[in-house]
Write a structure and sequence with these properties.
It is a single chain. The chain is α+β, with helices and mostly antiparallel strands. It is 28% helix and 34% strand. The protein has a single domain, classed as 2,3-Dihydroxybiphenyl 1,2-Dioxygenase, domain 1 (Roll). An 8-stranded mixed beta sheet has the order 2-3-4-1-5-8-7-6. The N terminus is likely disordered.
Length: 158
């Protein structure tokens, strides 16, 4: 069995988590799984030819230096991301990783600001101190992967 190591402050996080767990869940659905790709058109072609998926939405997000294509899967999306600038976080992620792969998971929330505040109250690191505009008119905020089981998490309010 794995041994659990408790760190200073863990009791505070555990208390905050158990208190928030008494309320209704913050995450309402999976919004999208984001896959970083070096070539967006090749990624779209792969999903079209392999799975018959079609693009539901395509947009350049200047602020993040990415172009995205959203492929509808039931009530969620596969989001293909490609960098539009060499200094974007997705460009750096692709360079460090050496190729395409899952970049982050986006979860729908009813209120992005409230969800972000709940995460911060529990002592977890976030990449966005305040919610910000996302693609397709959403409001988003990111949680640091080091405090989210190694996964970059995006909170998405439609």
């Amino acid at each position: 069995m794995a041994q659990i190591t408790r760190l200073p402050g863990d009791d505070d996080k555990e208390t905050a988590m158990s208190e928030s767990a008494q309320d209704r869940p913050l995450l309402t659905e999976i919004d999208h799984i984001a896959i970083a790709v070096p070539d967006l058109d090749e990624g779209i072609a792969y999903y079209r030819e392999t799975f018959g998926a079609t693009v539901d939405h395509r947009e350049i997000v200047e602020r993040d230096g990415v172009e995205e294509a959203l492929l509808k899967v039931a009530e969620s999306y596969v989001q293909l991301l490609t960098p539009t600038r060499d200094d974007s976080t997705v460009a750096k992620w692709l360079a460090n990783r050496g190729g395409p792969g899952i970049h982050h998971v986006g979860y729908r929330v009813d209120d992005c600001a409230a969800a972000l505040d709940a995460v911060k109250r529990q002592g977890f690191r976030v990449l966005d101190e305040q919610p910000r505009p996302g693609s397709r008119g959403t409001t988003v905020a990111f949680i640091h992967p080091k405090d989210a089981l190694g996964t970059l998490i995006e909170l998405v309010q439609e």
